[in-house]
């Protein structure tokens, strides 16, 4: 179940160390995959390896997520991640890669493009954080009281994180996958980092760019899990109507974590779009 997924390379960003990896032929067209919250590049493992047959695929764990560094006072906001992504593309020397971004990563990719001059050949957005309002009732509750939640005993914190992540899937996650996604948020560094990233998730970071979606002048595909309970599928049509020429693929039987719920269907849609 992807137990051998490791990111062997690092980049020192303004928000701390980023972990990243590259797959496929270095001469092939580049594709960059962005994860969302509270996930990591691990959710892209199957899609990344499939795309690497015909593309050079880059994956990364954002600062504060997955295997990347986590520390007190770290800026892991959407504003910071957008700047880091623009830095990382320059570090990789990628002029106009294709970009595929999930959830929070969608806002990161959009901010890097619209505010920081990052250029993409094409952009696929998978159940993205892009339109107000966003954030579940639970997400807003934790964000408003992060310091209280940080005081939970370790066993209750672990149960909370497990149930929260599990709710991103419609059919349910394999136990080993769920444990892999929960693990980065445990322990002395992981637990505070979980609440830190929620506390810094401010809707103003998408409000700043939402009015600019009509200026996107590149091929855009929006993919959405039909059974997404985190961000309703109705948002898919709303987003497509704001982006000139954008395509839309709804994926039946998939919740918010489409990469786990329907990896074959998502990969097929991405392969067609990227080719």
Automatic annotation (TrEMBL):
InterPro entries: AB_hydrolase_1, AB_hydrolase_fold, Carboxylesterase_BioH, Epox_hydrolase-like
Domain AB hydrolase-1: 29-263
UniProt keyword annotations, A-Z: Hydrolase
UniProt entry tagged with the keyword Cell cycle: no
MF terms in GO: hydrolase activity
Pfam families listed in its UniProt record: Abhydrolase_1 (PF00561)
Gene3D superfamilies assigned: alpha/beta hydrolase
Tree of life domain: Bacteria
UniProt entry tagged with the keyword Transcription: no
Protein name as catalogued: Alpha/beta hydrolase
